[in-house]
Amino acid sequence: MIKAALPVALLLAAPALAQTGATPPAPAPTAAPAQPMMPPPEFMTAAQAFGQCLSGKVAAAPATTTPEAAAHQAVTGCTAEKATLAARFDSWVASPSFPAAGRAQAHQQFDGQMNDLETTIAGQIRQGRSQAGAATAPAPAPTAAPAH
Asked: Rounded to 5 degrees, what are φ and ψ at 103?
């Protein structure tokens, strides 16, 4: 449930963060089209490790734990991975390859995502539990057609 959604959210956010810089001037007609900037492998690895940690913590949470408590426990249980991800993000954004004009916005987006992480995870847990409940619920008994 969280396993796919969270790492994908983190990894998909990375290219969007990279593209927040000012629009460059139009290239000369002979120039090749600009390629979107992709995050460095170090960031991608850290995002994957953080997502895997969160997924493992959420999967280990008892079903009796509220989604909010499970999300909180997952995030606090992955503090080291979160710190590594933040450090890799900071390094990437500070690098000369990242557009200087987009750095403040990239930090705002990243910080916002990290601040909303528990809420996002709790929502995903809730959704996963409701889907699992619907899949295991017994089918309604067929109703007999009225006799004529």
From this structure: -65, -45
Q: Is position 66 within any domain?
A: yes
For CA atoms 77, 82, 83, 84, give the dihedral sign.
Answer: positive
Show the domain range for 52: 2-10+40-132
pTM, rounded to two decimals: 0.69
Digit-coded pLDDT (tens) for 41-73: 999 999 999 999 999 999 999 999 999 999 999
**Which two tokens mark 48?**
């994957």
Quickly list DSSP for 59-109.
Answer: HHS-TTS-HHHHHHHHHHHTHHHHHHHHHHHHHHHHSTTS-GGGHHHHHHH
Contact (CB, 8 A) for 8 and 37: no
Please state at what angle helix 117-136 crosses helix 67-77, rounded to 10 degrees: 130
